[in-house]
Amino acid sequence: MIIPHPLLGPRDSQEFVYLGDASLINRPDWQAGDAADSFYEYQYLRDNPAGTHRELWYHEMGDRSWLIVTRNTVTHEIISAELANRQTAAAKTKSSRAGGRK
Amino acid sequence: MPRLTPTTALGGTAPRIDEIGGLRITEIADPSLAALAMRAKKNAAFTKAAKAAFGANLPAPNTAAMTDRHAVIWMGPDQYLVEANSADASLAGTLADNFGSAASITDASDAWVRFDLTGSDNIAMLERLSAADSRSMTAGTATRTPIHHMACLILCREAGASFSIYGPRSSASSLHHALITAAASL
């Protein structure tokens, strides 16, 4: 796979390390009253979509930046790659996954 | 007070120089380096201090700003590697004075090993080592790339003619072996 790095251009996926779902960027507040519940959700509950998936990749062999890569898990097509920062994290919160313990 | 003998990254007392075919691979014993990282929400002060300290704008991704006294190399978002053109043990201290609270600065002289690559075949050699497009690199281009699974940096000083390769100092011998092997296989 080739990942289109937003700053460095196309880069081979062997330069990257995969972390997991992009929701991991939104770490719950450990001091909140419902911290136990929210960490349970954060740690264990994931959607496992067949299709478009937003995920975190770390450019370990390159500029050490974190990327949010949108990838089709069925075809491995890379749809987009953007730097992981507060803006992209906020965008994720809005389109947050439907699952989770209620 | 014991008298200690400084050693180079490869463990010798003098820098290693290898000449293989038309290539010359030179270990640079004593690069003066500082890692420069912007602190949060200090963009304006950081940019201003950099302009004053280097007399040049900060380099864009994949490039380095080459000035009379420094090479400022883009390493990552808001992170730079500063290389002094001549040995300067006070580099990190001077930069810390220049940047104040706008940046975090670490002396990185002993974090990296630097090999300089000159000669006619260096593009062919780099193409055997890395996926980086060394053929299109011009003076002042720098790219971070894996070489033999080590996170390295290739800095072009003169297109097609002169390159510096930085790698982790703790893997200096592995990187040297990779360079020698690639040069010998041309």
Report on the structure:
The complex is a heterodimer of chains A (102) and B (186). Chain A is of the alpha+beta class and 102 residues long. In chain A, the strands form two sheets. In chain A, strands 3-4-5-6 form a four-stranded antiparallel sheet, with no helix packed on it. Chain A has a two-stranded antiparallel sheet with strand order 1-2. In chain A, a hairpin with a 7-residue loop joins strand 4 (52-58) and strand 5 (66-72). Chain A is 19% helix and 32% strand. Chain A has one domain: Folate-binding fold (2-Layer Sandwich). Chain A is built from two helices and six strands. Chain A has helices at residues 35-44, 86-94, and strands at residues 2-5, 9-12, 17-21, 52-58, 66-72, 78-83. By secondary structure, chain B is an alpha+beta fold. Chain B has two domains: 17-30 and 111-184, 2-Layer Sandwich (Gyrase A, domain 2), CATH 3.30.1360.120; 32-107, Alpha-Beta Plaits, CATH 3.30.70. Chain B contains four helices and eleven strands, in the order βββαβββαββαβββα. Chain B has helices at 43-54, 91-99, 122-129, 172-184, and strands at residues 17-20, 23-28, 32-38, 64-66, 70-76, 79-84, 103-107, 112-119, 141-147, 150-158, 162-168. Chain B has a six-stranded antiparallel sheet, with helices on one face. In chain B, helix 3 (122-129) packs across helix 4. The longest helix of chain B has 13 residues, at 172-184. Chain B is globular, with a radius of gyration of 17 Å. Chain B starts with 16 loop residues before the first strand and ends with a helix. The model of chain B has no long low-confidence stretch (mean pLDDT 95). The chains are: A alpha+beta (102), B alpha+beta (186). The A-B interface holds A 7-9, 12, 14-15, 60-65, 83 and B 61-62, 74-77, 79, 131, 143-146, 149, 151.
Compile the SSE list and pairings:
The complex is a heterodimer of chains A (102) and B (186).
Chain A: E1 2-5, E2 9-12, E3 17-21, H1 35-44, E4 52-58, E5 66-72, E6 78-83, H2 86-94
Antiparallel strand pairs in A: 1-2, 3-4, 4-5, 5-6
Chain B: E1 17-20, E2 23-28, E3 32-38, H1 43-54, E4 64-66, E5 70-76, E6 79-84, H2 91-99, E7 103-107, E8 112-119, H3 122-129, E9 141-147, E10 150-158, E11 162-168, H4 172-184
Antiparallel strand pairs in B: 1-2, 2-8, 3-6, 3-7, 4-5, 5-6, 8-11, 9-10, 10-11
Helix pairs in contact in B: 3-4
